[in-house]
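Consider the tokenized backbone below.
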């Protein structure tokens, strides 16, 4: 299965920077407030050093108490400013995360349907859920934390150099060691993070498929097989997570050594230099306390860099959604005629394995065409060609002489629409679910009621507490599969195309309900071209023409009576159907 692409690491960071750059004022405010807060915080070690030297010089208790009061006041100021900076940074993070979600949804709605079908649901589901959750913590909290630690570390080191340019460099002797271990850590863990994300995507797809097709899994007794496959993926992810935990333990040991040993060096060297009279006890105290204070940003930096590496993998997957190439280049915005013609259409999901072979067919405006044949004959694939979902591998499907893939999306859907047995109920009211199909046109409540009546949904909708204004979808009234399918069919009526491709569109209804609905739709869709891909042959019986497909080819084409009289493949199918 073809996976969706990944954005490069550099591009992912650039895109994240673009979201931050759009809020320069907020970033500048956070930087300024945090800088002042850090300056106030480092004043405590500085003042304590001054107090120690002052006591040694014979300063009075009043002076000492005044200096300690100033230190206390500066700590209070630092606390308040840290809160303000953290609050503003979190607000900034929320806005950045919100804009990223909007961008992702915009990319998702623009994805070519062919790319979605080729990639499968698991990869897309993981990018919109698990990957967004991975990024969420970084963006909402990490921006604040990383700005804080960078500014705090910079101000702290600067204060240490101001206190003693001799001792301050000793604070940093552990950084090269930490950097080497961190480099080793990230080199080994990034591939693990990427593999874990891919494993989560695979697991999400397997779980979703098993739930969605639970009845089939039960009927074929595939429960143990599915569980075994999921267990194998979970074990693989667990092994990678365990390896990541082992590398984090090594990084933790390096941090302990790289941050505590320099402090011992500072104290040892400082005591020696004090004995020589080169430094004062207050300077040694100040640098030591500042060195201890600098440990926090170093530890935080390592933690957030770890989170950043994990998030970068998620960002590559999220921003990669927008890198899916278009499967068509619209060049025509309007066509007039309503005749769709397929000419020598071939299509392959995988190179070298075509499922359609030079299929040619002209749809007569206003006719009802049924496409029948055994499973795997290419009926649904050909239906997608006729609806412009996939561009053919070779040949063309055109309207008014213009290939469907050359039409804009809005123009294409105003002419031809595909309805499958797969359906979705959007969060909102029933009326909202139908108005989504109007492409900006105003749809009255009366028109919605007419559409619902046409698909036989009026009675159960009227029985709901708020009628067409009843909330459905997540958090609302749960619709049965048959009811959801009726909503999907009603959307087609609202869209009002001249050609409708129905791919097993009534399969979730029982035989009698499907028959009744198809008869209602027949009268409602009168004057429109209808292509019905069906496994119930009464659909073919009522059609103007029937196309019989086998192995990716149309082997018979004609009316029901003509094909029965022909005594070929369709006649055989009809005989089997009528014997039930």
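A designed sequence for it:
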């Amino acid at each position: 299965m073809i996976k969706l692409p990944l954005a490069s690491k550099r591009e992912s960071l650039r895109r994240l920077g673009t979201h931050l750059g759009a809020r320069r004022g907020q970033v500048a405010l956070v930087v300024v407030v945090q800088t002042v807060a850090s300056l106030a915080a480092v004043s405590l070690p500085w003042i304590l050093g001054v107090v120690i030297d002052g006591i040694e010089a014979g300063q009075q208790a009043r002076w000492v108490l005044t200096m300690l009061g100033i230190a206390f006041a500066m700590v209070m100021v630092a606390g308040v400013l840290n809160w303000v900076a953290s609050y503003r940074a979190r607000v900034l993070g929320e806005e950045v995360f919100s804009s990223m979600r909007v961008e992702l949804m915009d990319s998702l709605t623009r994805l070519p349907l062919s790319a979605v079908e080729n990639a499968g649901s698991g990869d897309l589901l993981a990018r919109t859920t698990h990957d967004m959750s991975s990024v969420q913590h970084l963006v909402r909290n990490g921006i604040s934390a990383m700005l804080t630690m960078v500014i705090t570390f910079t101000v702290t080191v600067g204060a240490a150099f101001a206190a003693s340019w001799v001792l301050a460099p000793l604070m940093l002797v552990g950084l090269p060691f930490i950097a080497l271990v961190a480099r080793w850590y990230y080199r080994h863990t990034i591939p693990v993070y990427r593999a874990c994300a891919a494993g989560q995507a695979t697991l999400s797809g397997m779980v979703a498929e098993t739930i969605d097709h639970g009845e089939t899994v039960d009927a074929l007794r595939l429960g143990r097989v599915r569980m075994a496959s999921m267990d194998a993926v979970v074990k693989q992810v667990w092994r990678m997570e365990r390896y990541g935990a082992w590398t984090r333990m090594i990084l933790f040991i390096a941090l302990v050594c790289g941050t505590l040993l320099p402090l011992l060096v500072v104290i040892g060297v400082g005591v020696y230099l004090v004995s020589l009279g080169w430094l004062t006890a207050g300077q040694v105290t100040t640098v030591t306390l500042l060195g201890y204070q600098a440990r926090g940003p170093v530890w935080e930096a390592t933690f957030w860099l770890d989170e950043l590496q994990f998030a970068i993998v998620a960002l590559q997957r999220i921003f990669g959604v927008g890198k899916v190439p278009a499967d068509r280049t619209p060049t025509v915005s309007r066509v007039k005629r309503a005749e769709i013609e397929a000419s020598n259409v071939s299509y392959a999901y995988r190179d070298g394995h075509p499922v359609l072979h030079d299929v040619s067919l002209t749809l007569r405006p206003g006719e009802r065409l049924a496409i029948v044949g055994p499973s795997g004959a290419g009926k649904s694939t050909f239906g997608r060609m006729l609806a412009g979902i996939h561009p053919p591998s070779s040949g063309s499907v055109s309207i008014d002489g213009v290939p469907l893939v050359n039409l804009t999306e809005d123009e294409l859907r105003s002419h031809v629409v595909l309805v499958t047995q797969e359906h979705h109920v959007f969060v909102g009211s029933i009326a909202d679910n139908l108005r989504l199909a109007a492409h900006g046109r105003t749809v009255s409540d009366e028109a919605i009621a007419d559409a619902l009546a046409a698909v036989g949904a009026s009675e159960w909708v009227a029985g709901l507490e708020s009628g067409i204004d009843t909330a459905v979808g997540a958090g609302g009234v749960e619709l049965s599969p048959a009811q959801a399918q009726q909503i999907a069919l009603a959307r087609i009526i609202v869209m009002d195309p001249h050609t409708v491709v129905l791919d097993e569109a009534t399969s979730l209804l029982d035989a009698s309900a499907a028959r009744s609905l198809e008869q209602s739709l027949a009268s409602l869709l009168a004057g429109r071209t209808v292509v019905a891909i069906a496994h119930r042959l009464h659909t073919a019986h009522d059609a103007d023409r029937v196309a019989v497909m086998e192995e990716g080819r149309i082997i018979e084409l004609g009316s029901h009576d003509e094909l029965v009289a022909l005594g070929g493949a369709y006649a055989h199918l009809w005989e089997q159907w009528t014997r039930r």
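The longest helix spans residues 223-276.
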